[in-house]
Amino acid sequence: MRDATAVSGTSVWRRIGLMRVTIVLLALAVYTPAFWWGTPYATAADRSNAWGVDDEPPLGPLAQAHDILHPKPVQNPNLGYPMLHPFMVLGAFAPYMGYELLTGGVKNPTVGFPHGFVDPVKSLRSLTLIAHFLSVLLGVGIVLCAYEIGRVLWDERSGFASALFVMLMYPMFYYSRNSNVDVPVLFYTATALVAFAFILRDGFTMRRSVIFGSLVGLSLATKEPSFASFVFAPFVVLLLPNPGSDGAPWRNANFWRAAIAGAACTFVAYMLASGMAIDFHRWSAHIRFVQTRLAEMENNDVAFIRMYPRTLEGGVQFAARLIELLAQSMTWPGLALGAIGVAVLGVQRRRESLIALSAIGYLLVIFFSARVAMLRYLMPVAFVFSIYTGRALVMAWESRRSPMRLGAAALGLASAVTLAAWAIDLTDGMLRDARYETAQWIAANARPGDALEYFGSDYKNPPMPASLTSRMAILNRGSNFRADTSEVAVKTVINGWAERRPRFVVIIPDYTNPGKEYAATCPPPIFRGLEDGSLGYRRVAFFHTQTILSWTKRPDLDYPVVNAPIRIYERVAVGAERL
Can you give the C-alpha Rg of the chain in angstroms? Predict the structure, then answer.
């Protein structure tokens, strides 16, 4: 006869395994559509970048590897982050690059376009898809981590509810589909919090300390500011007795051995994964860059970034903006449920409430340091609060009080439906981005040898055929410089067009000029002259896809790059040009 306990244990693990598979398949189903958004159509050097801001692949990680293998005085300009994410992307690239080398798809790799690729359009698109799908998988991992935290701290039902609300977080539907660093860092943050959930439930041991410390190191090696998610941890493990024990843990020698081992693992993991041990020169340049950028932000020297002043009024505005961004990530009803869950568990003095200190500590670090509010910066906070949203919903549903059950159900349903509507609208905007229709128009109307000019960076342009040449109408100096829109700049553009005579001019807005229809490098008189025809150009096309749920008024992303409105102007032929 089989042991009933063993049968029960087997049944539990089978059920947990089925739940995990369900969550993985569900997350894959919602994140995979449109992961191909933004892949470049690399018919020229200025068409090799993905559309997303800070979406480094396909060339970014390859350039980072080139700098390591072939050191030079001037490093790759992207020094904003440590190297773990580029290493991960390069690992994902490796099988495809091996295939390209074996089949002759790449010969004599070079820094300049086409970078040694025989068919750069196919190769750079394939590499971008690989990098984007890696983010999809990491996004799925984040959702699975939410389930594990809920299951470990409470039960399977709470785990599933937590996973559902984390999966529906609004920014996840954008950042899980491109290769920005914020989903990778959230993945390692989430895995570290899973390890800490086991510490809260089962106690602080050598093994758990080593695992937790290593995962924290990997999170820091992806993006150093992630330390803010873990400032709470030393205080908790130092002051919270292990389950079933009495007295402060710091009185035990085993505690200190485990703590030192965990700290050492954090440093070693960071040292190896960040690139410090591989290319110390590059790592040092990265640290200097970050220090310089922080000083520039503090002095308001970085264009297009709002710093909240360290005054009472600035602090109130900054706090209100942080709360507003959390609500945009998880809706006001979802945020309310999460706050209720934290408050109820905190009042009950339940140790499961201590994971919330990760979010609270993170908010405090942001408030007293960076003074910059962006949607993606708050993803670690929204992740934690979404877990408590799931738990609060389950607690209310298990209550015998009907008003509590109905109230929580109404909040939960309102949050889930709103988040789903935002996700559908964003996904539709990515699937039917105006650039796709624009590309068809350009292909049908452009003649070989025609030229097109644009304002701002080249990452946002629609696909263009190789027979069409393109260039910036005026130099884009980057985010550290405020665009010159003076009369001198106006004359520079007009004189340049008189000399170069491009057939087309394209206007696409971006994050450099919030609320405007054009990029910051386009002087307002130039835009007005294009619109009224006084510059010798007339508007011949306008593209902006009407998404299926636009009435939901989904929140803005940090960068308005999805389905941006596109205006195309054509030079008006005069005199002999008509013949």
Answer: 26
Scanning the structure block, which residue is given the tokens 């992740």?
A: 383
Q: What is the pLDDT of residues 121-167, one digit of tens each?
A: 999 999 999 999 999 999 999 999 999 999 999 999 999 999 999 99
pLDDT score for 536: 95
List the chain domain ranges: 45-133, 309-431, 432-578
| Residue 431 identity (one-letter amino acid) | L
Q: Please report, for residues 60, 87, 207, the alpha-carbon distance to residue 55 in angstroms, rounded to integers and kept in the order given.
A: 9, 15, 36
From residue 567, alpha-carbon distances to 43, 497, 515, 550 in Å are 21, 17, 16, 20
- In the numeric block, which tokens belong to residue 62? 């390859």
- Residue that the structure tokens 């988040």 belong to: 419
CA distance 86 to 59: 10
262: Cβ–Cβ under 8 A, 6 or more apart, which residues?
Answer: 209, 210, 212, 213
526: Cβ contacts below 8 Å, ≥ 6 apart? 473, 490, 493, 494, 535
Alpha carbon distances (Å) from 148 to 9, 237, 263, 394: 18, 20, 24, 16
* Cα angle, residue 262 at apex, residues 259 and 266 outer, rounded to 5°: 140
User: Is the CATH number of domain 432-578 3.40.1620?
Assistant: no
**What per-residue confidence (pLDDT) applies to 578?**
34
Helix (H, G, I), strand (E, B) or coil at 471: strand
Residue the block writes with tokens 């150093």: 224
Percent helix / strand / coil, the chain, rounded to 5: 60, 5, 35
In the block, residue with structure tokens 């087997």: 10
Name beta bridge partners: 106: 117
Q: Which residues of the chain have pLDDT under 70?
A: 1-9, 73-77, 301-303, 479-480, 573-579
Joined together, the tokens standing for residue 557 give 């992303």
